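Fold these two proteins, one after the other.
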Amino acid sequence: MRPPPSPRNGGEAGKALQLYGGKAQVSRDLQMPPSIRPDTDRHFKDPLYIGLPNYGNSCYQNATLQSLLGLRPFLSEMMALISGPDGGSCRTLCAVAKLMVLRQKALGKSVSSHLNDLREVFASIDPAFRGNEMQDANEFLLRLLDTIKDEIDARRPAANPVRDNFEYQTIESYMCTNCHKTVLKRQDNISWFVSVPRRQGSQAPTLQDALRLSMRSDERELHCEHCKHNECRVTTKISKLPRTLILQLNRYVFLADESKKIRANVEIPKFLSLNEYVADDATRPPEWKCTK
């Protein structure tokens, strides 16, 4: 996230939108900068002002795409791939990367037109993504990234922006509670699911609390091949770090045959710490060399 622009004078300080380290506060006199008209192509405009129009209830797609467009390493690596000899054979990759190129050039009208064409590409992932009904944004994100990753792996296994930016690895340690024999299992993921913690006192839980809850050790039933005991203690560490960590806050629990949404507030701190969950020999994400 970029820091908010600095006010020009003391009188404008109260009009600024404060999002960092506290709750968002907007003054009634806040003047938002004008956005680029979607029917005008202006190469010299800032691409950050380019919006994505909704087609029906497609805001779940637009919110996902805007998040991906804000990640500079992923953005540059995706655009570099379509300029290569094998880029044209990856339909989803090329369609999303073209949107990135048009937005970087601040071609508002072209972005709007191509976004409508993208719906046909998304329909090949799931026909529901072409309709006008609301869908789950996280499901759309994961299926989109998985599709792009598979397309690239089929043709360019050496370089994959999805894997290089989002994939992380955990190592689970299964220790028998009787003989202490330990078995290790590694697993690769691109999304981390965390549950809403219970409120402690009057203070709302934070996303850091949700991370702590998801990483705590637990006991499970597992047959030990060494002593035949059927209980083990499982601890989890992160053995490979991603450039960008995707977190999904699971707000639904299943009670009998129906699901219930947890509506409790969860505060998001300015920084999240993974220090206590990272293995000593963890692999760092690939280095990204900025061209500017």
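Now the second one:
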Amino acid sequence: MKLRDAPAACPSLWRCLPCPPAELRLDLVLSSGQSFRWWESSPGAWTGVLGSRVWTLRQDGDRLWYTVYGEEDEHEEERDGCPAKAAKLDTTETDRILRDYFQLDVGLSALYRAWGAADPLFRKVAKDFPGVRVLRQDPVECLFSFICTSNNHISRITAMIERLCQAFGRRLCCLDSRPFHAFPSLSALTGADAEARLRALGFGYRAKFVSGSARAIAEGLGPEGLCQLRAAPYAEARRVLCALPGVGAKVADCVCLLALDKAEAVPVDTHVWHIARQRYGVALGGKSLTPRAYQEIGDFFRGLWGPRAGWAQAVSTPLPGTLAPHSSHAYPIISPLQVLFCADLRKGQKPASS
């Protein structure tokens, strides 16, 4: 099946939602290290897996365009690159999925104004990064993706998640000879040989954490219980997550923020700690990021940015340990020079000299 990279390709199979760039910038959000299932399939077009379906997204002015590929479409005869008889799409449902995933009911422009009024540093950064919002992901996928992020970088994490899905997930379709798979179910990751297979896929020490957490969830609260943590208080959700193998405070906060509706969660690593110390003058901790300093830094940003502090952090700093594609470090987006530095890293180039 051919990949459709713009509404001009099979226009009847595309649909759009009203969405100005100030409310969403696909290029900033889908490459930020929140999710690892999207790739820029052509300039301005992003293709990935969401809700066990394959989508291509594109922005044009104030509209967010999307097309969804059906498994059954793959076997249909094509005419001019389009399925001769495409499966009927429930557009009410696909609209809902997309609005929920990008949390489009949250007015981002108003939040930017409030954060900018409270924080001059945020105001300086935000004008160059409009439309950065937090995704609302499936809790199982988000949890196991972020277990893989420790001491890692975006390009390697993305490759690991791709191998994980190919080995354990259900095949969805093939676009231009590229196969797409659903994220594995918990049952697929709890097999007796799961850890050995993951090690063979290059997961290293993370293999035991992935298989161990899968077993712990399957034998305990289950995937439904994990999803129900959305209704639990932030502290309770965080406590439950931190009891899982391979899940510390930082991973737990990433999952709380990106999957469990805890907008006040502020993931902290040593680089966010340095930002708090150097840019905001917050003198916390000694020579290392202690659990107490971690909590106090999160409390500082919650006090500064309010109940959606985790959203503000997604604009002013990348998620811990994920921005630079070829480094295990996160680089704060604070000045134009550092933005250029990050841009060069994204391209796999040496940083531009100042």
